[in-house]
Amino acid sequence: MPPPGLAGNLKEFEAGGSGDWFPSAEIRYYTNVFVVQDDKILLGYKKRGLGIHKYNGFGGKVEPNESTLDAALRELKEEAGITAPLTHAGTLLFVVPGEKWAHIDIFRAEEYTGVVTESDEMRPKWFDTTDIPFDQMWDEDRYWLPLLLSKQSFSGRADFEREG
Ligand SMILES: Nc1nc2c([nH]c(=O)n2[C@H]2C[C@H](O)[C@@H](COP(=O)(O)OP(=O)(O)OP(=O)(O)O)O2)c(=O)[nH]1
């Protein structure tokens, strides 16, 4: 399956990739939710697991037989203690050699219900949208988070080299 949102001649991709692209692999599905209110954005400091010690939206793996939207709502509740009407903002594909590809559906919310609460996994914190801590986030977030903030739909792919 070609990466969603990437139109055009995908013959190379369907053939398994070549040249500078890593070959295709099994895909794992994730979600990520950003709550934006006026000039503030809610991020979570990841306390354990993938992306530890980085700020990110709230999210995780989509479980079998669960829709992406249901997974996003579940993770937002588990990790930040809140519920929110979600709008799909964009889709990203992250590729690391030797690992399953990560397909991430990103959602935006402009209101929420409940009380923002720290969880075992995330410590929530509000930031000014003009002062987002990109140096403490995943490297490529700086490219697409501005699109989420300006409500422009996006799709993209990032190829990482293995750390070290
Ligand atoms: N912003 C951003 N988020 C990313 C990147 N790569 C990546 O996996 N993520 C997100 C997707 C998920 O929201 C989160 C990783 O999910 P997770 O491993 O914590 O999943 P989980 O909560 O189901 O984990 P667990 O309960 O099994 O520990 O990190 C990236 O490059 N940028």
TrEMBL record:
Gene3D superfamilies: Nucleoside Triphosphate Pyrophosphohydrolase. Its EC number is 3.6.1.56. It holds the Pfam family NUDIX. Keywords: Hydrolase, Magnesium, Metal-binding, Nucleus. Its cofactor is Mg(2+). SUPFAM superfamilies: Nudix. One of its GO terms (cellular component) is cytoplasm. It catalyses: 8-oxo-dGTP + H2O = 8-oxo-dGMP + diphosphate + H(+); O(6)-methyl-dGTP + H2O = O(6)-methyl-dGMP + diphosphate + H(+); 2-oxo-ATP + H2O = 2-oxo-AMP + diphosphate + H(+); N(6)-methyl-ATP + H2O = N(6)-methyl-AMP + diphosphate + H(+). It is found in: Nucleus. GO terms for molecular function: 8-oxo-7,8-dihydroguanosine triphosphate pyrophosphatase activity; dATP diphosphatase activity; metal ion binding. GO terms for biological process: DNA protection. It comes from the Eukaryota. Residues 26-150 form the Nudix hydrolase domain. Monomer. Oxidized purine nucleoside triphosphate hydrolase which is a prominent sanitizer of the oxidized nucleotide pool. Catalyzes the hydrolysis of 2-oxo-dATP (2-hydroxy-dATP) into 2-oxo-dAMP. Also has a significant hydrolase activity toward 2-oxo-ATP, 8-oxo-dGTP and 8-oxo-dATP. Through the hydrolysis of oxidized purine nucleoside triphosphates, prevents their incorporation into DNA and the subsequent transversions A:T to C:G and G:C to T:A. Also catalyzes the hydrolysis of methylated purine nucleoside triphosphate preventing their integration into DNA. Belongs to the Nudix hydrolase family. This is Oxidized purine nucleoside triphosphate hydrolase.
